[in-house]
Design a protein that fits this description.
By secondary structure, this protein is α+β, with helices and mostly antiparallel strands. The protein is built from six helices and 17 strands. Its cofactor is FAD.
Length: 278
């Protein structure tokens, strides 16, 4: 994965904060399946090959009921339209050959879907960004974003960098353009920047079960059900991790804090923000 220097100006900053959420979320690289519609900006622009932090490569989406087969075939067609490499529909015997302890009527085999260590991926992006001339600022909680009305005293740039970003600590940077990407805080940062806070972030947490280590041989790769269009989730699945463990899940429960990854994490402001949203 790399970042083109063409993306950077001579004064480019990346303000990094609340980054933990990225490490807590999914580590699966989906290669254009599931909820990625044709032409979606969410499509992973990655060709098959080595990936920083890469691990197990294999995903089966398994139909266990006849009524799921049309939806599985629709996923297959979507994958073809999105140029997913190596995609195949396989029958019960091939399912068992790939996953000896898995049973199903038909499955979608996506050999280039894999798991990654997202911390390594993010660090690699950071290194590319810095090598291309960017600057990363950490612990920079943004509290205001304004447009300068006149050049600062003694400035040689004039209004070349009119966007002023201030932090909670009173630090300030200026730039010509600003692209916000704040994950769980996207709506709040959007409001600070003068844009709409809609759609609002309502945090949900996924809880997983851990397969006993001595049962790890039961699962070789990612095993997913056929998504049910009535629900916005991918369903209960089996995910091998980079450390060799296997997670089973998740469910989806309302979180009482935006970065509340533990059962009793609570933020009054986040909770009220979620339950009063209409």
């Amino acid at each position: 994965m790399s970042l083109s220097p063409k993306c950077l100006s001579n004064k480019t900053f990346c303000i990094r904060g609340h980054f933990e959420e990225q490490f807590q979320g999914s580590t699966t690289h989906y290669m254009g399946l599931h909820n990625f519609g044709t032409g979606s900006y969410k499509l992973p622009p990655v060709a098959p090959g080595p990936c920083v932090g890469g691990g197990v490569k294999l995903q089966l989406i398994v139909a266990v009921e006849q009524e799921e087969i049309p939806r599985l075939k629709a996923l297959y067609e979507r994958g073809l339209q999105n140029n997913v490499p190596g995609l195949r529909l396989i029958g019960a015997k091939e399912i068992q050959a790939k996953e000896p302890f898995c049973r199903g009527l038909m499955a979608l085999d996506s050999p280039y879907t894999g798991i990654v260590d997202y911390k390594q991926v993010a660090q690699s992006y950071a290194e590319d960004f810095q090598e291309a001339g960017g600057t990363i600022l950490t612990d920079f909680e943004v509290t205001s974003i304004d447009m300068a009305k006149e050049s600062p005293p003694g400035s040689e740039d004039g209004l070349k960098y009119p966007v002023i970003v201030r932090s909670k600590q009173g630090e300030e940077i200026s730039c010509g353009h600003l692209l916000t990407c704040a994950g769980l805080y996207s709506d709040r940062l959007s409001a600070i920047s003068g844009c709409s806070p809609e759609p609002r972030i309502v945090p949900f947490r996924g809880d997983y079960l851990l397969l006993k280590p001595e049962k790890g041989y039961l699962v070789r790769g990612n095993i997913y059900p056929v998504p049910n269009p009535r629900f916005p989730f991918l369903g209960f699945h089996f995910t091998p991790r980079m450390d060799g463990s296997v997670w089973l899940g998740p469910n989806a429960v309302l979180a009482f804090k935006r970065e509340g990854y533990k059962l009793f994490d609570f933020s009054t402001a986040d909770f009220l923000d979620a339950v009063t949203y209409r």
